[in-house]
Amino acid sequence: MWRGGSNTRTCKRRFFSSPTRSRHHRPPYMLHSRGSQHLKAMAEVDHLAAERATARFDVEEMKVAWAGSRHAVHVADRMARLVASDPVFRKDNRTMLSRKELFKDTLRKAAHAWKRIVELRLTEEEADLLRQYVDQPGYVDLHWGMFVPAIKGQGTEEQQHKWLPLAYKFQIIGCYAQTELGHGSNVQGLETTATFDPKTDEFVIHSPTLTSSKWWPGGLGKASTHAVVYARLITEGKDYGIHGFIVQLRSLEDHSPLPGVTLGDIGGKFGSGAYNSMDNGVLRFDHVRIPRDQMLMRLSQVTREGKYVHSNVPKQLLYGTMVYVRQSIVADASKALSRAVCIAVRYSAVRKQFGSQDGGPETQVLNYKTQQSRLFPLLASAYAFRFVGDWLNWLYTDVTQKLEAKDFSTLQEAHACTAGLKAVTTSVTADAIEECRKLCGGHGYLNSSGLPELFAVYVPACTYEGDNVVLLLQLASGKQPVGTMAYMGKVQYLMQCKSAVSSAEDWLNPDAIQEAFEARALRMAVNCAQNISQAASQEEAAGFYERSPDLLEAAVAHIQLIIVTKFIEKVHQEIPGHGVKEQLQALCNVYALYILHKHLGDFLATGCITPRQGALANEQLGKLYAQVRPNAVALVDAFNYTDHYLGSVLGRYDGDVYPALYEEAWKDPLNETVVPEGYHEYLRPLIKQQQLKLSRL
Ligand SMILES: CCCCCCCC/C=C\CCCCCC(=O)SCCNC(=O)CCNC(=O)[C@H](O)C(C)(C)COP(=O)(O)OP(=O)(O)OC[C@H]1O[C@@H](n2cnc3c(N)ncnc32)[C@H](O)[C@@H]1OP(=O)(O)O
Ligand SMILES: Cc1cc2nc3c(=O)[nH]c(=O)nc-3n(C[C@H](O)[C@H](O)[C@H](O)COP(=O)(O)OP(=O)(O)OC[C@H]3O[C@@H](n4cnc5c(N)ncnc54)[C@H](O)[C@@H]3O)c2cc1C
């Protein structure tokens, strides 16, 4: 796997073997080291025990609040341990693998995961969790996450009967081929064609231009045998727009591309390891024929004669798979954010800098108010996203049930909420992972901290499944005030209400928070509407275009209101366990007041609060941070992540960071040899040349 030099000596994780350094030059730590045995003995110490002892709540019960139920804690725990104890699922070396090695490793893990799922007869819930803890993006994510849901959502019952059992048993592997080289956001602009040929009862799938090449679909590059392909349906000479088709791409015998199909991987992506385990692909069709019944026909059909028939359902149901994936991306945001925060909180409790008096211990960096004011809002956001994710999942389930009964009244609300929450939670999480890296100082930049890889894997979430800006603009289409828009019905009150807050403690009142957030969101929306009509007296679209940056901010304000509202509702519920409700209350207040502080300009500009009230909110925020401080480590323990899943020497449960960092360094392929490859070609001649020059002087 790792390359060793031909003319270099091999060093098996030896501590100080450089022939150029004498023992006396070794750092003090090494002089006392007794090698890895010593490291292991040290690892048994819980460096965070004192932190855990200061928690003022029942951590086991907080795990239940985080996971959603006792059953969820139990299943997640079992699956996480199953993965962590299996050597095939090891991931500590993956940033050092070449792209080919990484891809093969992903295939191996996916196959092994499937073997374990079958052997242990895991339920769907258990299997999903097992895959999550394997923690390596791969074709299976798209197979289960988009291919299967697309067939379920857009296929007729007959089509589902035919295709789903094959997919469930992995007799076929599928991906979701929508985006093209020329168009991603603008789905209506896709160019691939599916032209019906009544003579043969087939569709002819074709890529007429370079820009019509499918580009990006995950799992397409190397693994998939089939795809749901989105193409313009043409029949009887008329273009009926974008529809989904099941197309076989590769032979089920030898995996070679079928005639007329050209496909491959689109190339390396951002970061080492990270999303490079995924084979995002390119695909072109040269008049590929598929039977008519491979058009997904639940929403519209083409008859044997070639007549186009549209069922009496909204055409946007074609976008249903995207709504499904967007809601799951919100749940994923809380997972990624909580991982980063868990690493940063634990490490901040271990790391000490400055403040030593009379030779005593230095200050834990977690005690610095600046560290707290950067870190605790992220901790609170992780909890906030978790709860809004649960609510969104409920909303999605509710809409799906209504759709089954041909009730389409909540479709628009589901689209707006999934699009907006996907945009806000992924943007915040991507920024937060980078902030956690900085919160961990220099060591946060090491791959072994887990943060660079987490960041690189996570950032495309701001783009895939809808670019975040494009999605936020979807919220601004001015619909009837229903569901989460209901507060807009209180327009007269909210346009002129004045906050009654007169002390810092008043900001602990959820009604005060709710009113300020509702007034801000509503006033921003109303301002936008007024500005749009002023900007364009003739055309609303022109005003919309002109004012789109303001619309974005109004959309964010609306989504932040939803997140705050759902957190407040959560805290109002009965929550068992000593001190659990109180901690969640504090985190809810941290989240809300932090957003208020960060967007103070909006609150002031719209006149929702006064500058004095803004200052009081900030004062209260400082008090809340002090309240969170003794509970911080226990609050991240409640995420219940194994060291394997965290994949971070800085975030280790036992806090024994330094020996782990030290040992990790020696695993780097560069340290396989004492004298580096290239020494004889490049370093030695250089040094010798300089020595020669000096000797001539
Ligand atoms: C550490 C390891 C962890 C492992 C993690 C692995 C995780 C892997 C997870 C995921 C892998 C990545 C998956 C990514 C897959 C993809 O990216 S698939 C491609 C996704 N593509 C997009 O999202 C494209 C974005 N564009 C759109 O959604 C639409 O084109 C648009 C909504 C922007 C515009 O739609 P369009 O039809 O062109 O025009 P409009 O006029 O704006 O809309 C017409 C009306 O339809 C309503 N509408 C739009 N979308 C929906 C919808 N989804 N549902 C319901 N309704 C919708 C819209 O509001 C308009 O309504 P009105 O006419 O009433 O105003
Ligand atoms: C890792 C990854 C995995 C993916 N997996 C898949 C997959 O499995 N299947 C699949 O089909 N696709 C997949 N995609 C493609 C993805 O869905 C698209 O890249 C995404 O929808 C964004 O579209 P785009 O690339 O066309 O961006 P563009 O629309 O070209 O965006 C470029 C810029 O233009 C701005 N912009 C665009 N339109 C507007 C507008 N109307 N108003 C204002 N600003 C605008 C955007 O904000 C952005 O800043 C994946 C992408 C990535 C990165």
UniProtKB/TrEMBL annotation:
Q: What Gene Ontology molecular function terms does this protein carry? A: acyl-CoA oxidase activity; FAD binding
Stored Gene3D superfamilies: Acyl-CoA dehydrogenase/oxidase, N-terminal domain, Butyryl-CoA Dehydrogenase, subunit A, domain 2, Butyryl-CoA Dehydrogenase, subunit A, domain 3
> The Acyl-CoA oxidase C-alpha1 domain covers which part of the protein?
319-476
Which positions fall inside the Acyl-coenzyme A oxidase N-terminal domain?
Answer: 58-173
Protein name stated in the entry: Acyl-coenzyme A oxidase
Q: Can you name a GO cellular component term?
A: peroxisome
Q: State the active site.
A: 465
Taxonomy of origin reads: Eukaryota, Viridiplantae, Streptophyta, Embryophyta, Tracheophyta
Summarize where FAD binds, as residue positions. Answer: 179, 218
Residue ranges occupied by any Acyl-CoA oxidase C-terminal domain in the UniProt entry: 509-688
Q: Which domain of life is it from?
A: Eukaryota
Compositionally skewed regions (Basic residues) per UniProt? 10-27
Give the organism the record lists: Zea mays (Maize)
Q: Does the keyword Lipid metabolism apply?
A: yes
